[in-house]
Amino acid sequence: LGEDSFEKNLWEKIPRIKQELSFAQIKELARFFAQIVDYKSPFTSTHSIGVAEDAERLSRYMGFDEETVQKMYLAGALHDIGKVAVGNEILEKPGRLTEDEFAVMKHHAAYTYYILSGVDDFDEIRDWAAFHHERLDGTGYPFGKTATELNTQERMMACIDIYQALTESRPYKQGMPHEKACEILRDMANKGWLDDTIVKQVEDCFRG
Ligand SMILES: [Fe+2]
User: Fold this and answer.
1) Does position 1 have pLDDT exceeding 70, yes or no?
2) How confident is the model at residue 43 (pLDDT cuts 50, 70, 90)?
3) Whether 180 is catalytic
4) What architecture is the 23-205 domain classified under in CATH?
């Protein structure tokens, strides 16, 4: 039985109602999932919501239309949703991860891609979310995409993911100051990992 006919059979046996949700309702759901992921990750307990808010702010700063701004919020909130498939013994491990553990950790981005592939009309949001560990020079993961395959929103998400993680304050640790975080981003752009024009936008948008 192919996947398509399985789906068709299921629809016939269990009639379901398609429910259209408003953007506000989708946003609430995305926030809900972001909180689950953040709750699971004690070292980055406001990361998903923080990335969502930063993605919204940077998109607005860069002059995107409101629909794109809202979609960037959703992509930001859901970018690490694949972490639900990574064990807590890895997410909560205090010290350095072993090579094997890091390999498992890296799977989260592929899981994000897989999970969001199951949502109707989410292709763009899925890609903006799931490619946040890709690098322009092809050394990122999980797909090893290169510059020609990474659009503006995907490049933005890679920058924001790092910027938020560096600047996020935690109960026991003050976040890195803006200027210092930007130095690191510039360094990563010089290495060919991040888009330098977007790093510049991040610098300007989040200053002060
Ligand atoms: Fe991630």
Assistant:
1) no
2) confident
3) no
4) Orthogonal Bundle (1.10)
